[in-house]
Amino acid sequence: MPNGDHALSFFAMSMSELIEKEVSAMPEPLQREVYDFARFLRHKNEDESFNGLFLSESALAKDWNTPEEDAAWASL
């Protein structure tokens, strides 16, 4: 698709459609991470007084700071 057509399709799609398009192109393990993050954001938004980013950073580091995760995200 030429760049101009791609830009037009971008503006014609809703944000949900854009997200779905990107996520559907990812391998399932990355799709799970996106799903978990989306749920986290939704719950965080429900209670803005909770700052889970700081609380979860050390817990998530053991899963995210791995060679496998680095390889999965290397092309992004």
Q: What this model shows, in words?
A:
With 76 residues, the protein is mainly alpha-helical. The chain has helices at 3-12, 15-24, 28-46, 52-64, 67-73. The two termini are 21 Å apart.
SSE blueprint:
Layout: H1 3-12, H2 15-24, H3 28-46, H4 52-64, H5 67-73
Question: How many alpha or pi helices?
Answer: 5
Number of DSSP-assigned strands: 0
Spatial separation of the terminal alpha carbons = 21 Å
Q: What's the mean pLDDT score?
A: 79
Note poorly predicted spans.
none
Major sheet details = none
Structural class by helix and strand composition: mainly alpha
If you compute it from the alpha carbons, what radius of gyration comes out, rounded to the nearest whole angstrom?
A: 16 Å
Amount of helix: over 70%
Give the overall silhouette: flat
Strand percentage lies at under 5%
Taken in chain order, the helices and strands follow as HHHHH
How many discrete structural domains? Answer: 1
